[in-house]
Amino acid sequence: MGKLYIVPTPIGNLEDMTFRAIRILKEVDLILAEDTRTSGKLLKHFEISTHMHSHHMHNEHKTVENLVKRLQAGENIALISDAGTPAISDPGFLLTRACVENGIEVDCLPGATAFVPALVNSGLPNDKFVFEGFLPDKKGRQTRFLALAEEYRTMIFYVSPHKLNKTLAEFMQYFGAERPVSVSRELSKLHEETVRGTAEEVFNHFEAKPAKGEIVVCVGGKK
């Protein structure tokens, strides 16, 4: 029986790719990539010629059964996302679950993921935290905020740049203007930045200077 490898890829800086990740990607029979065009650039940089198949949120329900059969037949497969660790707000959970249910070994390599450096950079308590990922766009958004208003642990969110100011305004509305917030963007990249302060202070900063790039927001819990 084959093995499924979950392989993290850099969130920005290519130097964050591990030696082990490169070796695994060269040795497996197939690489599943969220976007083969994006991953193609990464594989070319590290001289990896392994065949790729597309595996993303729109097709993963249809492809899991066939991939399990290939693994059961002895193929070794690696799963990568566009950046960071697969299955963390990215495709990967369905295939991992199917492998576990069918007795197929899953090996997740340690490596890059955006929320860990954002949490450590924030200066907020990190002995206990809750990862929320992306908030619902419409249905259930208010309900989620009302529940999180009582959360005592540091909360971590992934936020699109065009939704950042709206989200910061909602933090003020539901958590209070004085709630501590840390916004990290473009982690590991040339224009990396972390802005810390109260929800109101951070909101005012990005009202004056709209954010660009990939964003992770950490919010202090209720005292």
UniProtKB/TrEMBL annotation:
It comes from the Bacteria. GO terms for biological process: methylation. Residues 3-202 form the Tetrapyrrole methylase domain. One of its GO terms (molecular function) is methyltransferase activity. Coiled coil: none annotated. The keyword Electron transport does not apply. PANTHER family: RIBOSOMAL RNA SMALL SUBUNIT METHYLTRANSFERASE I (PTHR46111). This is Ribosomal RNA small subunit methyltransferase I. It comes from Flavobacterium ardleyense.
